[in-house]
# Entry
Amino acid sequence: MNINKEPVQQPAECLNEIPSLHNAFAGYFPIGTAVNPDVLQSTGSLIARHYNSLTCENHMKPEELQPEEGIFTFDKADSILAFAKRHGMRMRGHTLVWHNQTPDWVFQGRDGNPASREQVLARMKTHIDTVVCRYRGDVYCWDVVNEAINDKEGELLRRSRWLESVGEDYIQKAFEFAHEADPNALLFYNDYHESEPVKRERMYTLVKSLLDRGAPIHGIGLQAHWNIYDPSLDLIKEAIERFASLGLQLHITEMDLPMFKEDDKRRDLTAPSKEMVEQQRLRYEQIFDLFRSYKDVITNVTFWGAADDYTWLDYFPGKERTTWPMLFNHQHEPKPCFWSVINK
Ligand code: GLA
# Structure
């Protein structure tokens, strides 16, 4: 009892009764966010309350975990995992094989020559074994191969150093190595522009060919770097249906809905217009309604950020600007789009 009649200090969440985002989706799918150690410092209480799945934004990528051959640096990834465990969250692993953020040494042989296929495959296996075994039982799924499709006309696969040095079966090998290292981990192929029909069909073709060859693949990651206008709901639905027809589970792995269309590079906006705020509210509502209706196949929805004050989009494609893509604003308060996804 408060006998002194002084106001009792309560955490902000209690005072204004903001429901927890992930609790609102308890009957559907976990709600994740991508993080780094700085974000856990600045935004940890918001993240602990509203999200129940974490992905390392960068700190499980090859260049972070094995910057030099045989030198593994797990400190930052470990600290993120420790946060997840402390708060009873699950952890997605991102990412084992990618053309970006992978050190040059992986592809270098002796005397400045390119490494042989066998050498690159042996390095891939060592990396996957070491990383996946370390996090066995803690990381429940892995984006095994990220963005291997060619976006342009022509061949199916992106011309990457992986493709050049190993050949087309590098993707299958990566899945096999990951499965050997942790037979219980769910293994994903992850890519962007997944709802755009040409890219979608290429992803479908790649994943189907992996399944036909018996590769241990369990899911497709739809990155969902969308915006408040595009892609259309119909295209998103078609992508979900098409990928689900392969009998795999789907994770939404990197979702964000910035206020600008892809070709709108404005930098002078200091606040979104009323129309933009309303459009974002509506889009988030429609998209989450759609996700809910596919809860049997969508088994994780992860945002590529936690609140508007930190998002990679503000620095992409180069110069700083504000894009307001998340459900929480710069002060970590819920935005209209937050209420539109949870008020059901
Ligand atoms: C891709 C990668 C992510 C991240 C984003 C941009 O989508 O999969 O790891 O690098 O680009 O931040």
